[in-house]
Amino acid sequence: MSAEAVPSTLDAVHGAEWAPWKMPWWRPAPSDRLTFVWMILIHVGAVVGLILTPFPGWRVILAAATLHFLGGLGTTVCYHRGITHKSVRLHPAVRNVLTFFAMLNGSGEPLSWAAHHRLHHAKSDTPEDISSPRVGGFWWSHLRWLWQAGAPPIRKYCRDIDTPAYRFWTHMQTPVSLLGFCIGIPFGLAAFFWLGPIRLVFALHAQCFVNSVCHMRANAGPDEETAQNVRWLSLMHFFQGENWHRNHHDRPGSARLGGTPGQLDIGWYTILLLERLGLAKDVRRPTIERSLDAAA
Ligand SMILES: [Zn+2]
Ligand SMILES: [Zn+2]
Question: Which of 134, 140, 184, 220 would bridge with 224, disulfide CB 3.0–4.6 Å?
Answer without folding.
Answer: 220
